[in-house]
Amino acid sequence: MPSICQSNWDCQSCPKAVDNTITHIFHHRGFHLPVRKCEENFFLFVLKGDVLVNSQEYAGTMLTAGEFILQAFGSKFELLVMNDAECIYYSFNQLELFCDFRFNYIMEKVPSPLIYSPLKITSELLCLLEGTKAYLCDPKVCRELLSLKRKELAFVLGYYYSDHDLATLVHPLSKYTSSFQFFILQNYKKVKTVEELAKLGGYTVSTLRRIFTNVFHEPVYEWMLARRKEGILDDLINSKISISEICYKYGFESLPHFSNFCKKSFGSSPRNLRHKQYAG
Question: In this structure, which of 116, 160, 237, 238 has its CB flanked by the most CB atoms within 10 Å?
Fold first, then answer.
């Protein structure tokens, strides 16, 4: 019985198709990607040619054929092609872990490199990359296939690269994840909406939502709403700020609107919540 996925099947219109995050690209000599803030994590694998990259980790570093780097989201990155280059660009939000235990061991026990150097593409990794050129070239690909290739990449990295090599991947990911968390915790009280938070950090709304979900493991709106409720309840119970001040502090247009929010969220009006605390 023939498989449903035959060569004449239109995979681009399949409901299982997702945007491809593994891109096979050619750049001519002189191609310049200006400095930009990365909105995703990505690997840059150079198969042919020479590419000059510039970032905090790889300042003025020449990538030659058979080398690759990882650049984490939030970092600034610039690229200049010195000789015609063939590359594979693999972007991701959350890296498939080669091993939770080993990842944590590297984070805690293996120091971050003082000087970052590109990693060599092993023969095993090259086989994986050559395969992606052959059948992962469409704008959309099967979700299951993309997941398998991510897992295969994680296995190759974990099996054929040393702890020292992997430290050049693990520490930047952790660093920028931590800096994103710091940005959120320092600034979420300063804004009223997800849109304002995204603008403050220089992100698009969709990028902020995507990164936030991967770092905090819940949608940003729900997280901000939960923190807002915690702050309101804390102010009502543990402060002497007037109910009117609390109302406008958290961006409510009127006291009736604030009261309705409290009744829906906490089962009681702001005044009753405060009186219950005093009575207790």
Answer: 116
What are the b/e assignments for 52-70, b being 16+ CB within 10 Å? ebebebbeebebeebbbbb
**Distance from C-alpha of 173 to C-alpha of 167, rounded to nearest angstrom:** 10
pTM above 0.90, yes or no: no
Cβ-contact 220, 209 below 8 angstroms: yes
DSSP, residue by residue, 205-216? HHHHHHHHHHHH
Please, are residues 236 and 229 in contact by the beta-carbon 8 Å criterion? no
Tell me the two tokens of residue 108. 């805690």
Hey, what domains does the chain have and what are their CATH numbers? Answer: 11-162 (2.60.120.10), 222-279 (1.10.10.60)
Q: Which helix (H) or strand (E) holds 160?
A: helix 143-160
**pLDDT of 230-258, one tens digit each?**
889 888 888 888 999 899 888 888 899 99
